[in-house]
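Structural prep section.
Before we set up the soaks we want a predicted structure of the protein with NDP in place, mainly to decide which crystallisation condition to try first. Input record follows.
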Amino acid sequence: MIKQDQLLWIDGREVAALDGGTLEVENPATTQIAFVVARGRGPDIDAAVDAARRAHDHGPWPRMHPRERGRILRTAAEILRSRKESIGEVETACVGRPLREMVQQVGRAPDWLDFFASVAETQEDLVVPASGELMNYVRRVPLGVVGAITPWNHPLLITMKKVAPALAAGNTMVVKPSEVAPVAPLELARALVEAGIPDGVINVVPGFGTDAGKALTEHDRIDRIDLTGGTETGRQVAAAAGRNLIPVQAELGGKAPVLIFDDVPIDIAVAGATFASFVASGQSCIAGTRLLVHERSIDAFVEKLVERTQLIRVGDPMQPEAQMGPVVSQRQLDRILGLVESARAEGARVLCGGERLAGHPFERGYFIAPTVITDVHQDMRIMREEVFGPVVSVQPFADEDEAVALANDADFGLGAAVWTKDLTRAHVVAHRIRSGTVWINDHHRIDPASPWGGFKDSGIGSENGVEAFNDYTAAQSVLVNLSRTPFDWFGSSEELRYS
Ligand code: NDP
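Run finished without errors. Recording the tokens verbatim:
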């Protein structure tokens, strides 16, 4: 059973905030307080950075053999797997996503630890062809202290996507999770400490973005900052990283198009579209929010989509039969319904949903009926802004060129999907779309081996895969003089050579 009161993890132990402050985590399905968590601020971030700095500069972690680091990361993965039910319950209590989905996601997250342990263990240094009587080998060394700031929507998984490669590469970390859902990231720290990670290697300090997040971002003793969050937060974090001349990696917002060609059977297209749009109540950066449907099949598609959407079982997310829970907060609920209203005012038609659900079991939580909107155009707010809720729009296209043009007409470029049975068209269209990930006849699939990053306003850099691991290291070039001829730069009359 996971404790209802949680502390910060700093330097290998649980500690209260220095000022004794706490924050309350609300269960969005009931509006009751689910957890009380220590609230870190600037001085707590300082203490965490100090601990991470010591662990990096003087501790064993960066100097440990990668197989030894890998052993600890794999042990932590097993601990987390054994707790997937209880951590899944925590996630559902914090964000309202159905338990059956959360348990599955929590069960998958440890794969990142296994994968990056393997990457670290199999990493090979390079010998490069430098000219002259030199041997030049290139080591990959950890960057140092990595700061990570994470959002509320997939709390453990997103934290894991940063923690696993950063630690496997030998860095130490300070993580500032969202104050809305900080408990699972704290449980990740607990599992790593139980697995034997040295003190100070992982520090988790929940708090608000405006104080703890800002203090971490602007800290002058961190060596890299990672963020997953909204695009505006990304601009602020990247500006601070620029001032400190440290690398930044940012996974930001999205507005994924789903292109559905008329060779796809309607039932399959609708099942794919509802999966893309409504998983996690649409609170996903890669939610398929813009359905682009060939004009020949759009009427049949919309009719079936509305029918299918109305059958989605919204309910208490702790119950196994619930397929969709609430949205995360009153603030999100107001924002989502505000965007639906703006679409109505601009002439769109709301075919189903578009309102807060009432009656049992919805009396207290932030439940919104899944919503389908048509008659939209590109200038509407709902087509430009990230909604982050269970709302999908449907638009027709006449041909491939128009589909691609509509898909690319967005400030974001994170995820996209193409549905067609035509193999050539599937690849050609995928290549024309400006987004970091494109699914063909699918959506939402991710893997620790599969690069994940945003084009345009959706981010900087990429997570997952070997390249992301390398980004948590710096190349150190070691040049060895192999010449047998004695060397005296100022005493010699021979031709001078630098290389
Ligand atoms: P926010 O941008 O509001 O917050 C993200 C994190 O940044 C939180 O921990 C927040 O703290 C913190 N933060 C906020 N302001 C600052 C600041 N000025 N300096 C430092 N830290 C700050 O995003 P949400 O939590 O609302 O998450 C939803 C967003 O995340 C969506 O835009 C979504 O698209 C994006 N996202 C992107 C993903 C991707 O892979 N590209 C994946 C998942 C989500 P706190 O909230 O505690 O105050």
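Observations: The first strand starts at residue 5 and ends at 6.
Flagged for discussion at group meeting.
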